[in-house]
Amino acid sequence: MVSGLLKTIRRLLIRVLVRALLLFVPPLRRLAARVHQSPGLPHPRPTESYWAVPPSGAGEEQKSPPEYADVVIIGSGITGASVARRLLDQTGGGIRVVMLEARGVCSGATGRNGGHISPVLYPEYESLKNAYGGASASKIIRLRTSHLDELLGVAVEEDLVERSQCREVRTFDVYYSRALFEEMKRRFEVYREDIPDEGDEYQVLEGEDVETLGLSTKTFGVFARSGGAIHPYRFVTGILERLLKVHTKTFSLHIHTPCTSIALPADENTGMYEVVTPRGTIRTRHVVHATNGWASHLLPGMRTKIVPARGVMTARAPPAHIDTSWAGERTFVLYPKRGDHHFDYLTQQPPARNGKRPAFPSNGEMMFGGGFARDGSYITETGVADDSAWKPSIAKHLCSALGPYFRSGHGNPTPSAAPDAEIHTWSGILGISTDGCPWVGRVPRAIAHVGRTIAAGTGEQAPPAPPRLAAPGEWIAAGYSGEGMVHAWRCGQVLADMVLGADVQPEWFPGEVFGVTRERWERASVEGMVEAFLGV
Questions:
Q1: Which of 52, 165, 333, 353 is 20 to 30 A from 133, alpha carbon to alpha carbon?
Q2: Residues 448/299, Cβ–Cβ less than 8 Å
Q3: Buried b vs exposed e over 76-86: b needs ≥16 C-beta within 10 Å?
Q4: What is the pLDDT of residues 379-410, one digit of tens each?
Q5: Can you give the pTM of this predicted structure?
Q6: Are 446 and 519 in contact (CB under 8 A)?
Q7: Measuring CA to CA, which residue among 211, 232, 227, 229 is closest to residue 172?
Q8: Taking phi first (over 0 means left), then psi (-120 to 50 degrees means alpha), and beta for anything else, what does residue 362 get?
Q9: Across the chain, how many H-helices and E-strands are there?
């Protein structure tokens, strides 16, 4: 009892301290101001992502959207694609679906990420268990691990295996701090004891076992297991192209057509939402928000719950000293310091093998990102939704950090930090959930009405609603905190089933944690996000 009281007092003191920092420390005060503001619409001229070259031809740019749709999906990334595929294929195209995208197709976080399908597991399990209990924590872990098989299966079904480069790889968590490696071994034991079948997937390597990986001599230890890699843009655009071809009468994708506002129905049981775009207004019973870091622009009630953050990615030729015989078959998360919030991540494009080029030829580029916690970048880049630029110090770090992570094959055990030959640099906007978990489900009226207007109504009779749809509403799947490739697809499937009227969520889905409830909404805070980053 005394111990519990002391923990409560400690939490209260930490919260008071963090609030004081947010009020009185200028960089933190600016962060707090940014996350209370609208992220606005996506920048019309973002940096060019490696993944989107050459661009897909999916989507209508000139044609106005229809005046009515059963469901309007805002966002054309992996969440939007998952929802659309489920809605259309489950109903045989029996419902009318419109997808809106402010820029080109798949131009948000999905088309700008690192191409990993490698979830964070043992490093976070204990904190998830402490926050939500062992049963819910286990469901979150299994949801993450299930994405590799799920996406591989979808790639086969959609005939996209070669085009999307969706593949199983070996993934390595690499630690260059002895203290952090020892802490991770402790966390791993907790993970393995509670979820033994998942724990058995890992190899823990140290000493001589690490040398075979060609890593720097400064490496203290490695955790290895199976993971995945993918060309995210080709995966999503391939699915959307197929849906547009098959469901010509009931599905349309309108690119460069931002949703500028949504007017709520006066009667949410029988009325219609009015989705406003520069090309016309769409009346609908269902609105799906699949905009991740930009979600709170149209849902003001989600400000300080899902906040944007700008990250940086690069694609570059491999440094000369790195043995790349494993090209396309390994991914890495690299922890250079004692804190686990300092990390970089790496995968490599599949090169030509046996004279055969991949569907979209590459030169074995190394896809290298990270640096988000360096030089105060967490503070300066959180709340930033402008992907037309990037922070120079992060880009500079990524230009020189890759080489020293690996052992030289030319007699130099610790290669210099001279910049590698840069191929491509771009930025992307993550959607950070301030309580660390995605938000998936119907948006409650009390949250949806914050800062919104009521539709005047046209007096027109609405078309009959398809019998399979749930009661009208707004829906969301967003806030993946940089881990969209191991959350978004299956969250989108569950959300689509909710729109289709499913009364019961699947047992494997952690709806008790991810659900959008008033209680959770009131608890989630910027202070909590900062505390989690500081590890207090």
A1: 333
A2: yes
A3: bbbbbbbbbbb
A4: 999 999 999 999 999 999 999 899 899 986 53
A5: 0.94
A6: no
A7: 227
A8: beta
A9: 18, 16
- Concatenated DSSP letters for 233-297? HHHHHHHHHHHHHH-TTTEEEETT----EEEBPSSTTT--EEEEETTEEEEEEEEEE--GGGHHH
Segment (H or E) for 232: helix 232-246
CA atoms within 13 A of residue 59's CA, in its CB half-sphere? 25
DSSP, collapsed to helix, strand or coil, labels residue 162 as helix
Question: Tokens representing 223?
Answer: 């955790």
- For residues 281, 297, 393 and 17, what is the CA-based torsion angle, rounded to 10 degrees? 180
- Tokens 């004279």 locate to 355
Q: What are phi and psi of 386, to 5 degrees?
A: -105, 105
User: In sequence order, what E strands does 290-372 have?
Assistant: 306-316, 330-335, 344-348, 366-370
List C-alpha distances in Å: 475 to 94, 444, 481, 496. Answer: 20, 9, 19, 9
Residues 6+ apart with CB under 8 A from 320: 410
Alpha-carbon span 320 to 85, nearest angstrom: 43
pLDDT band (50, 70, 90) for residue 416: very low
How many residues does this entry show for the chain?
Answer: 536
Residues facing 508 on adjacent strands: none
Amino acid identity of residue 139, one-letter, is K
**How far is residue 165's CA from residue 348's CA, in Å, rounded to a whole number?**
11
